[in-house]
Amino acid sequence: MRPLDRLFQKWRLRRAATCLPQPLRLIDIGANQGELFQLLGGSLQAGFGVDPLLAETVAGPNFTVRPGYFPEVGPPGGDWDAVTLLAVLEHIPRDRQALVASACFAALRPGGRAILTVPGRGVDSILAVLRFLRLVDGMALGEHFGFDARETPQVFQAAGFRLLHYSRFQLGLNHLFVFEKPGQPGPG
Fold first, then answer.
1. What gap in Å lies between CA 89 and CA 102, rounded to an integer?
2. How many angstroms separate the first and last alpha carbons of the chain?
């Protein structure tokens, strides 16, 4: 990753972290090398990540990131506090998005949250220019599958989630969605 790619990534991670309950047990889909887990530090009780670009498992003191695709590679149990998909949903083909949303729902405890960031319209064109100028690597722009951020709520609401929060950030070019699994959190 180039410095500008890292800047955008850190901005997303920090923004999403403000929406996470603490302390927490977190699943991070598209976890890369576990940067979100590292950012959370001691507030993270346990972390499970999955990333298709990993060659081998990455482990930290309170997290593990495995190579593969979610939900085929996923954590055990349905008692996680949160799941994050930061700049991930747009890389999932439309015919698999409902499966991923349903698997997120099943993995969470009642009251658990799904936090997503997705790019807005025009971002691909901006990133293409930045990639041409060699300012960013433009990570997998060809995998955006004609994604439209406005479709995000219906994908996750169809899986049973309710929308808690929506906002834009990164100069309005990125969307933040926070969904909740209905029900009361259990003790713990």
1. 13
2. 38
Q: Are 152 and 86 in contact (CB under 8 A)?
A: no
Whether cis (ω within 30° of 0) applies to the bond prior to 182 is no
Residue 62 DSSP label: S
User: Mind listing the pLDDT tens digit for each residue in 149-159?
Assistant: 889 999 999 99
Is 87 within 8 Å of 6 (Cβ atoms)?
A: no
Query: CB neighbours of 69 closer than 8 A, spacing ≥ 6?
Result: 50, 52
Alpha helices in the chain (DSSP H): 3-17, 35-40, 94-107, 123-132, 152-158
pLDDT digit string (tens) for 114-140?
999 988 665 555 555 556 555 555 555
Omega before 93 within 30 of 0, i.e. cis: no
Domains of the chain, by residue range, sit at 3-180
Q: What is the CATH number of domain 3-180?
A: 3.40.50.150
